[in-house]
Write a structure and sequence with these properties.
Layout: E1 2-11, E2 14-24, E3 29-33, H1 40-48, E4 55-60, E5 63-64, E6 73-76, H2 88-98, H3 104-113, H4 127-140, E7 145-149, H5 157-171, E8 176-180, H6 184-190, E9 193-198, E10 201-207, H7 208-214, E11 215-218, E12 228-233, E13 236-240, H8 251-260
Parallel strand pairs: 3-8, 3-9, 6-7, 7-8
Antiparallel strand pairs: 1-2, 1-4, 4-5, 9-10, 11-13, 12-13
Helix pairs in contact: 3-4
């Protein structure tokens, strides 16, 4: 549904994105992970057109993404910036007008479940309530693609679990979701695929299940006879191999291994 090819972006001559590639199919959740400054938020902003890209292609359903496709995307931005003086009712009117696929029942249930006061100005909400309200708008939009930047940040643990399920249920209706997050342990619970970004480029992408099946963690003294050393995870090695050795990794260990490995800094790859 959404395909990113060789996306590039620079600011004042400094490249922030140099080679971003990934695909999200219908019904899938892709987790975009990486350290601060790696380019996660910039990638989202280039997809939405907040920043004009300097190179590469963005496709929606095999058509190059243009202004006419914007109704197909709903966004929860990282900065949680809201319009001053607008209350919940104002936001409801705005979003329900913008999205022809707006789901009134979903919005009503979400607002009732989390006890929102729509007469209150959104700017007076706590950061957690802003996050929750923006997620509610996004899942009520009926958009084909959700772009969620840290969607569980600032939320209580119980609500985090509920939001993760809501995002999962949304994807299961045949929609696509891109989640940018530092919460790797959470992502393992509800995301399907992963794209690891560092230094402005995606250095690894795969389904989470396949990545965990094809990588192993080796302790000191274990010798790799067939496969590839990826990187260091504390005092152990992450390797890519099909042989039965070591133990299977957690998602967090795969991410750390790739971020510390030589693949992330090899400019010739």
């Amino acid at each position: 549904m959404l395909r990113i090819e060789s996306l590039k972006k620079s600011f004042n001559g400094k490249f922030v994105l140099t080679d971003v590639n990934f695909t999200i199919k219908r019904g899938e959740i892709l987790a975009l992970v990486g350290p601060n400054g790696a380019g996660k938020t910039t990638t989202i902003n280039c997809i939405t057109g907040v920043f004009p890209k300097d190179g590469g292609k963005i496709y929606f359903e095999d058509e190059e993404f243009t202004e006419i496709h914007k109704e197909k995307i709903a966004v929860v931005p990282e900065d949680r910036v809201v319009f001053p003086k607008l209350n919940g009712k104002d936001y409801y009117k705005l979003w329900s007008t913008l999205y022809s696929s707006w789901n009134e029942k979903v919005f009503e249930r979400f607002i009732a479940k989390y006890n929102f006061n729509l007469s209150q100005r959104i700017e007076t909400y706590s950061i957690g309530m802003k996050t929750l309200f923006l997620v509610g708008l996004a899942v009520s939009s009926g958009a084909e693609i959700l772009l969620l930047d840290e969607p569980t940040q600032h939320l209580d643990p119980t609500i985090r679990i509920e939001i993760m399920k809501i995002i999962r249920d949304y994807a299961e209706t045949g929609k696509s979701v891109l989640v940018s997050s530092h919460e790797i342990f959470e992502l393992e619970e509800y995301a399907d695929n992963i794209a690891i970004i560092k230094e402005g480029r995606v250095i690894f992408t795969d389904s989470i299940d396949h990545a965990k099946e094809t990588h192993k963690i080796l302790s000191s003294g274990e010798e790799l006879t067939d496969g590839t050393i990826i990187g260091l995870v504390k005092n152990e090695l992450l390797v890519k191999t099909d042989i039965e050795i070591g133990r299977y990794p957690k998602l967090s260990e795969i991410v750390i291994g790739y971020l510390t490995g030589k693949q992330s800094s090899n400019i010739f790859e």
